[in-house]
Design brief:
The complex is a heterodimer of chains A (494) and B (165). Chain A is globular and about 80 Å long. Chain A starts with 9 loop residues before the first strand and ends in a 14-residue tail after the last helix. Chain A is an alpha+beta fold and 494 residues long. In chain A, 36% of the residues lie in helices and 25% in strands. Chain A has 4 domains: 99 residues, 3-Layer(aba) Sandwich (Rossmann fold); 69 residues, Dna Ligase, domain 1 (2-Layer Sandwich), CATH 3.30.1490.20; 236 residues, ATP-grasp fold, B domain (D-amino Acid Aminotransferase, Chain A, domain 1), CATH 3.30.470.20; 39 residues, no CATH class. Chain B folds into 2 domains: 75 residues, no CATH class; 68 residues, Beta Barrel (OB fold (Dihydrolipoamide Acetyltransferase, E2P)), CATH 2.40.50.100. About 7% of the residues of chain B have low confidence. Classes of the chains: A alpha+beta (494), B mainly beta (165). Chains A and B meet through α9, β17, β18, α13 and β23 of A and β2, β3, β4, β5 and β6 of B.
């Protein structure tokens, strides 16, 4: 480890598992850290473990994390010279990046211009197309414009409506017929305006049996390296729930083609920092540019484990002006990694969000196991934030071993107090088509009838009910206070 | 008092019949031999009819959470009076499918609506959902104003169907 100073102090402008992930990196690099938190997160691990922790205020926890002026004020007060935005919140906000720059603070990410270019789905598509990379067929005009509905319907169904400024599956919906179009556009525009402050939407042809394959890139403004692809086809509500690296769909030649296209796009944009180029990959091996995410991704750990890199450390060093430490020739794949997103939801009931409180937590561990979580005992799980609670990543020599490892570790994970999708994730991981690697973004819907909760056996049901009764606080109290000799309670009599 | 639990929407009675070294329980009329050994506040070894399992248990009010056989189970302990359902959903009463926040109501009280009309936009975990009328009728009441948050299962809107009273 070098002793040179990368930053005097870095503020982590986020919460939950990713804030903790970035904190670990800052600690390893010996950089003093600042956590910011809303009152509802005051007991979270990142707040306890960061060198300094400052409360932020707002009408809602999210509003507090989106308050640029407040965050910059904290930076100035504390002598912060770098801000890591993580993902979500201000991570793809060019205005935030500029405002930091105006105050002499470094945004740990790409330039504001690149965020703007790639953050808008319409301009980014145009940019990519101009540079000779493939984009899917689409219509992009003002939704209020006359002829819009007809132009869109002429493309044929199904279609996907996307918020131009969107990302992360927000503001996206599939339309199967002209009848649904109007109401879908209304919801999409409302979501788009609410989350992104920009109600422009555009409509693209939807490929039903396509995969979502994305490529990790890292650039320093001069050079760009690609660090393999991730297969992220297992999604619900356009949000990924299981990701893996490498993709079971690509052979070495195809991998090279897709990865080089991604690096080409990043290079055309003079990309700085870590980024992800997302592609739609059709069943006949065609691929189209979907979007570029100009931030660290939720699923970055699968890449880190397979390629033995630290993407966050790379972001920090590059932001401090260092050149890329990774050379393309040194990017060597080793084994396979699978990530499962643990979410607070009733996955067997249309993924309805669940709320609760973390009453007990036992994290899984072992060789090749990574559990990225910001969970803590006593934490209230509310609807204020995204339902993702933690990520389990397992790295193993083969894909099947990584899948088996995930199943084993999901069973080992104990989280009591809020319902999660753990059992659902296991059903997906055990599915024959998943095991074959025969997956596409429609997987969750296509195999919905297979992905059902197991019926309890009579024996298992008795075990559950016995455990419930014997652990029930009121019963435990009675039993602990009743000496055995007088224990013939209930209706027993000789 | 017979302890009663709701598991996967079914109600089960679990009665303590006898306790000496082993505990005998009667579950839905079926006798079960059980033995429990607590390792700490949350973890125990549970033996049912000779088969042992590692069990984790935690409780929040009347909600019981258990982890065994690699799965998590949530049960509701019913009190003596058995709370039960708070009255079924009426023909035109729409209950919240999840906890969330009211974003916008497209209709107002007294307004006529038709089956399939969009009524309101709600949001939960950053996901917006449009609620549509399941039936034609008159809007009798709207449960929440824009910006108000609500719990799962509460009435979001009540639509009165002519002649159904």
């Amino acid at each position: 480890m070098t002793t040179e100073t990368l930053f005097n102090k870095v503020l982590i402008a986020n919460r939950g598992e990713i804030a903790l992930r970035v904190l670990r990196c800052l600690q390893q690099l010996g950089i003093p850290s600042v956590a910011i938190y809303h009152d509802s997160d005051k007991n979270s691990p990142v707040v306890r473990q960061a060198d300094e922790a400052i409360e932020i205020f707002g009408d809602s926890p999210s509003a507090a994390h989106l308050d640029v002026a407040q965050i910059i004020d904290i930076c100035k007060r504390l002598g912060v010279d770098g801000v890591h935005p993580c993902y979500g919140f201000l991570s793809e906000n060019a205005g935030f990046s500029r405002e930091l720059a105006n105050n002499g603070i470094t945004f740990i990410g790409p330039s504001a211009e690149v965020i703007e270019l790639m953050g808008d789905k319409i301009t980014s598509r145009e940019f990519v197309e101009e540079h000779g990379f493939p984009v899917p067929p689409s219509v992009d005009m003002d939704a209020d414009a006359p002829g819009f509905i007809d132009a869109v319907a002429a493309m044929g169904f199904p279609l996907v409506v996307k918020a131009s400024a969107g990302g992360g599956g927000k503001g996206m919906s599939i339309v199967n017929s002209k009848d649904e179009l109007e109401s879908t556009l209304r919801v999409a525009a409302s979501e788009a305006e609410k989350y992104f402050g920009d109600k422009r939407v555009y409509v693209e042809r939807y490929f039903e049996n396509a995969r979502h394959i994305e490529v990790q890139v890292v650039g320093d403004g001069t050079n760009v390296v690609h660090i393999g692809e991730r297969e992220c086809s297992i999604q619900r509500r356009f949000q990924k729930i299981i990701e893996e690296a490498p993709s079971p769909a690509l052979d070495a030649a195809k991998r090279k083609e897709v990865c080089e296209a991604a690096a080409g796009i990043a290079k055309a944009a003079s990309y700085v920092s870590a980024g992800t180029v997302e592609f739609l990959y059709t069943s006949n091996g065609e691929f189209f540019f979907l979007e570029m995410n100009t931030r660290i991704q939720v699923e970055h750990p699968v890449t880190e484990m397979v390629y033995n890199v630290d993407l966050v450390a790379e972001q920090v060093k590059i932001a401090a002006g260092k050149p890329l430490s990774i050379k393309q020739k040194d990017v060597v794949m080793n084994g396979h990694a699978v990530e499962c997103r643990l979410c607070a939801e009733d996955a067997f009931n249309d993924f309805m969000p669940e709320t609760g409180k973390v009453l007990f937590l036992k994290e899984p561990s072992g060789e090749g196991v990574r559990f990225d979580s910001g969970l803590y005992q006593g934490q209230a799980i509310t609807t204020a934030f995204d339902p993702m609670l933690a990520k389990l990543i397992v790295h193993a020599p083969t894909r099947q071993q990584a899948i088996d490892g995930c199943i084993e570790k999901l069973k080992e994970l104990v989280l009591l107090g809020v319902n999660t999708n753990s059992e659902y994730l296991i059903k997906v991981l055990e599915h024959a088509k998943f095991i074959e690697g025969d997956i596409d973004t429609g997987f969750v819907g296509t195999y919905a009838t297979d992905l059902k909760k197991d019926e309890l056996s009579a024996e298992q049901q008795r075990a559950v009910l016995s455990a419930a009764m014997l652990s029930d606080r009121s019963m435990r109290l009675i039993m602990e206070n009743t000496p055995d000799i007088y224990a013939s309670i209930g209706r027993w009599s000789n | 008092m017979t302890p009663t639990y709701v598991l996967n929407e079914n109600t089960h009675a679990v009665e303590l019949v006898r306790r000496s070294d082993d505990i005998t329980l009667e579950i839905d009329g079926h006798l079960v031999d059980a033995r429990i050994h607590w390792l700490d506040r949350y973890q125990c070894e549970l033996t049912i009819n000779g088969k042992s399992r590692e069990v984790y248990a935690a409780q929040d009010d009347n909600k019981l959470f258990l982890h065994l056989d690699g799965k998590t189970f949530q049960l509701d302990a019913l009190d003596e009076f058995g709370a039960g359902d708070e009255g079924g959903a009426g023909g035109g009463r729409i209950k919240a499918p999840m906890p969330g926040v009211m974003i916008e109501s497209y209709v107002s009280e007294g307004q006529q609506v038709n089956d399939g009309d969009a009524l309101m936009l709600i949001e939960s975990m950053k996901l917006q959902t449009e609620i549509k009328a399941p039936i034609s009728g008159t809007v009798k009441s709207i449960g929440f104003a824009a910006g108000a948050s609500f719990d799962k299962g509460v009435t979001l809107i009540d639509i009165e169907v002519p002649g159904s009273e």
